[in-house]
Design brief:
Distance between the termini: 34 Å
Structural class: alpha+beta
Oligomer: single chain
Strand content: 35-45%
Number of strands: 11
Order of helices and strands: HHEEEEEEHHEHEEEHEHH
Shape: globular
Length: about 280
């Protein structure tokens, strides 16, 4: 199974799925700065991000049990342009009643099988952008690359010849929405990458599917999002995970593999980081 920080490698790719346009603004050259995010559990730097020098930044590391989730908000001084990484979403789907009971006893989040687009429209927007107007879905430029990567991983799983059949599916969705910040209209692209790994023993029809979704939101003043996207892509690609933190997290996850958090606690913490502030 992929480790959490390897999954976080998809963060920089999320906005790449939206494509990019040239320039942050007409004829502008922006100075940049590197900002650090401290993991409050370890009290050490977890990751760094490079943003425009005059932007405001806030970030943290959240945990769902022993699982780390990065989150940050970076925005211009007027808050009208910005990039936000939402805490990673995780849930389990199963058609096995016995497995469902076990997962419920572990306080796991259980959801039905759902596409990335349905997750955004049915769940994410209502929580993270209440009142926003959905302009509509937009093309995910490199969706084919995700499918090819899944095919290669699934072939590797098949070669392992284990009694458990495991396959991975990646699904992506992008939606453009509109809302106002302090009375000023903004456009925002919500890009979600959903990765699901299903496990099935032998030829049994019963299965368990574990899903993670990485969500990035990129916004700009109304009409300026397309011309701003390349700079927002650059910010998302600049995320760098600290190697010393990674080693510490490995040890923590190993020693706390069964650590759980109450869904209400996770939800309360997540709600602080999914909204625009």
């Amino acid at each position: 199974m992929s480790t959490p920080w390897r999954r976080l490698g998809t963060i920089g790719a999320v906005l790449l799925l939206a494509g990019s346009a040239a320039g942050f603004g007409p004829g502008t050259a922006t100075e940049m700065k590197s900002v650090e995010v401290i993991d409050p559990l370890f009290n050490r730097v977890a990751f760094r991000v490079t943003i425009p020098a005059d932007w405001v930044f806030d970030g943290t590391v959240l945990r769902e049990g022993s699982w780390p989730m990065f989150a940050f908000r970076a925005s211009s001084p007027d808050r009208l342009s910005g990039l936000q990484l939402l805490p990673m979403y995780r849930w389990v789907s199963t058609n096995d009643s016995t497995e469902r009971q076990r997962l419920e006893s572990e306080r796991a989040t259980i959801m039905p099988y759902i596409t990335a687009a349905d997750f955004v429209t049915r769940h994410l927007l209502a929580d993270a952008r209440p009142g926003a107007t959905v302009i509509g879905p937009e093309a995910v430029v490199d969706a084919q690359a995700l499918t090819i990567a899944d095919y290669a991983k699934n072939r590797a799983y098949d070669v392992q010849m284990t009694t458990t059949r495991r396959h991975q599916r990646t699904d992506a969705a992008r939606f453009r929405i509109a809302y106002e910040i302090d009375g000023h209209p903004v456009d925002e692209a919500i890009i979600a990458i959903k990765t699901s790994t299903s496990e099935r023993r032998g030829m049994e029809p019963k299965s368990v599917e574990r899903t993670t979704v990485t969500v990035t939101a990129a916004r700009a003043p109304r009409g300026a999002l397309d011309s701003t996207m390349s700079r927002l892509v650059a910010v998302s690609k600049s995320i760098s995970i600290d190697t010393a933190w990674m080693a510490r997290q490995y040890a923590f996850a190993r020693d706390n593999a069964t650590r759980t958090a109450a869904p209400s606690d996770v939800r309360a913490t997540r709600d602080n980081w999914i909204l625009v502030r």
